[in-house]
Amino acid sequence: MTRMRLRDLRLIALLGLLAAGCSTWSPPRSAAPAPAAKAEAAKQEAAKPESAKTDAAGAPGAASVGAADEGVMERTRESVRSTTEWLARGVDSWFGDMPFEKGGSVTEGRLDLGVLRREVEGTSVSVRLNARLRLPNLEQRAYAFVGRDNQREVITDTPGALTRQQRLLEERPQDQSFFAGLGLPVSDKVDFRLGVRGGLKPYAQTRYRQPWHPSDRDLVEFRQTVFWELSERFGSTTALSYEHAVSATLGIRWLNAATITQATRNLEWSSVLGAYRSFGEERLLSLEALISGRPGTGVDVSDYGAQVKWEQRVYKDWLLGEAIVGHFWPRKDAFSERMPSWAFGGNLKMRF
Question: What is the tally of helices (H) and strands (E) in the chain?
Fold first, then answer.
């Protein structure tokens, strides 16, 4: 218990340092369509001179950062990474005596600080941390994961573009919790996960993913997640997306997801249709239409609207910022009227 408190205190201190040191930010990236955005990103990266890859402080599209702020951000990123590696070493030592340096690693690390405000809901702040850990004392194909995120979205495996943060919906502090677990990819399509969230409450997932490429410009992906958790019991989330690359810099995507659990027994569904325009140097403009609902509650469509996002690199290639403006028409229940509501949001994302 003491060890866990020390970890939490250390992480909280690092988050405070990030918030204090990164007061000037500009926008990140929602999930841009793979055919267009990924090809464009690879093309731009290959065309960069070596100096631009290692020092992007003066690169086009990067915000100018003072020497003092630059030092704070570098130290903050290194502190977050070293803390995550320290945690990985500790967990790995539970399974054997092999040194962490022999195959251990921290990948896909990201720390997000988000602020959003809806007229009818008020302002909320969220902090999300996610990382994937390779532990050499586990069998070669197993991996560990750790983070802090919306606990229900982690358990139900909600697609990133349909999370409450990306839909500019209020998040309460109790919606967030730390989580950790072990994963075993059986194949490229099937993945098993066993984890715990805040309060050492267990959960389990089986995830299946099947992509199709009807053409060089099109991608269809089906994803099915079956999960179990103490309060929700058994449930499943089904996601289906279609992406089309109009050109090397413009793409469209239609993403749909639905979740049902034994506890609620009501199907929760959401959908987003978006167009994404890349301007190079990790700058992305997005226009999205969103709709969501829960049949059987008296309000089949609980929220719909549109939002515009601008994303760009803030510092080097690992600090990104995102600004979002949206207009929505929510309806809480059958006894409430549907009222228009403006929404504003900003996210600061650090890769480590």
Answer: 5, 14
* Residue 90 CA: distances (Å) to CA of 95, 129, 146, 149: 10, 18, 13, 21
Joined together, the tokens standing for residue 154 give 């982690």
How far apart CA 137 and CA 132 sit, in angstroms, is 15
Per residue in 290-299, pLDDT (tens digit) is: 999 988 778 8
pLDDT band at 24 (very low <50, low <70, confident <90, very high): very low
- Residue-range domain boundaries for the chain: 2-22+38-351
Tens of pLDDT, residue by residue over 257-286, are 999 999 888 899 999 999 999 999 899 999
Q: For 2-22+38-351, which CATH class? A: mainly beta
CA distance 316 to 78: 14
Q: pTM of the full predicted structure?
A: 0.73
In the three-class reduction of DSSP (H, G, I as helix; E, B as strand; rest coil), residue 123 is classed as strand
Look at the block and give the residue holding tokens 């290959």. Answer: 46
